[in-house]
Amino acid sequence: MTRSSDTPRVWFVTGAGRGLGRAFVRAALDAGDRVVAVSRTAESLADLGGDPRVLALTVDVTDRSAVFLAVERAVARFGRLDVVINNAGTMSMGFVEEYTEDQARAQMETNFFGALWVSQAAAPILRAQGSGHLVQISSIGGVVTGPTVGLYSASKFALEGMSEAFAAELAPFGAAVTIVEPGGYWTGLYAAMETTEPLADYAQVREDLSAASGGSVDSDPALAAEAVLALVESDDPPLRLILGDVVLDAAIAAARQRIATWTAWAEVSRAAEHAIAEPAG
Q1: 114 near 88, Cβ under 8 Å?
Q2: Model confidence over 152-188: pLDDT tens digits?
Q3: Residue 156 bears catalytic tag
Q4: Are 227 and 243 in contact (CB under 8 A)?
Q5: Which candidate in 99, 156, 163, 185 is catalytic?
Q6: Out of 44, 92, 131, 138, which one is annotated catalytic?
Q7: Which of 78, 190, 199, 208 would you call most buried, defined as having the most Cβ atoms within 10 angstroms of its Cβ?
Q8: Residue 139 catalytic?
Q9: 8 by DSSP, 3-state: which?
Q10: Which domains does the chain have, with CATH numbers?
Q11: Residue 64 neighbours by CB distance under 10 Å
C-alpha cells in the first residue's frame, strides 16, 4: 500500500470489542490512523465513543445487510477503506460426531459467512480505489487440526479457501489479501467457547487428550497487533502470515508431512489421471 506519511489510513476492524480486535484498534490509533470499530455489542465499544478518530458500530457480522450498511457508513464518514480486518470469530469444541446441526451451522456463520459478507461489502471500495488490504484472521487451526476442534478448523479452512481465491481475484485491481494464522493469544475466546454434549464412547479418548495436553501459555494480543501493523505497511505483503513460534514449527512440520505422503503415493496419484476424448453421449 502506498501512502504519504501524513495521510492517515482508514481501518475497518470486526470483533473490535476485545482481544485481538481491540489490539488492532489500538495499534492503528497509535500509528495515527482512523478506525471503524465493529462489534456485536455496544457495551464493548463504549470507551471508544468519544474519540473523533473512531467510528464505533454495533453490527452482527452474520447479518449481511447490516454489514453492507456498516461499510457504507464507514466510507461516508472517512471517505475510503485502507485496511479491512476480518477478526470477529467464535470457537466451539467437541468431537465431530457430537455436534448438533445448530452448533455446526453456528460455528460457520461467524467465522466463514461473517467474513465473507465483510469481504464482499469491502471489495467494491478496494477495487474502485485501486488499493487496500483485506486481512483475514484465520488460525493455526486453519492449517492443521486435531480432535475436538474439527468444526472450528472447518470454518477456518473454508475461510482460507475463499480468501486464497479472492486474493487472486482482487490482485488485478491493486488490492491485497492476507490470511493471518495466529497461535494462542489471551483474547477471551476460550471463555466464550461453546462445547458439545459429550458422548460416552469418546470418554477414554477425551481423557487421553487431556492428559497429553500439558496446558498452554498464550501471548499478549499486542504482539499480534505489531505483526499486523508490519504486514499492512509492507509493499509486498504475503498471502499467508503465521503468528507464533510454536505454531510456525507446527505448520512447517505439517507441510513436510503432506509432501512426504504425496510423494510416497505419487505412483497411485499419477496413474489415476490420463486424458481421453470426451465420451460420446
Answers
A1: yes
A2: 999 999 999 999 999 999 999 999 999 999 998 777 7
A3: yes
A4: yes
A5: 156
A6: 138
A7: 78
A8: no
A9: coil
A10: 10-247 (3.40.50.720)
A11: 15
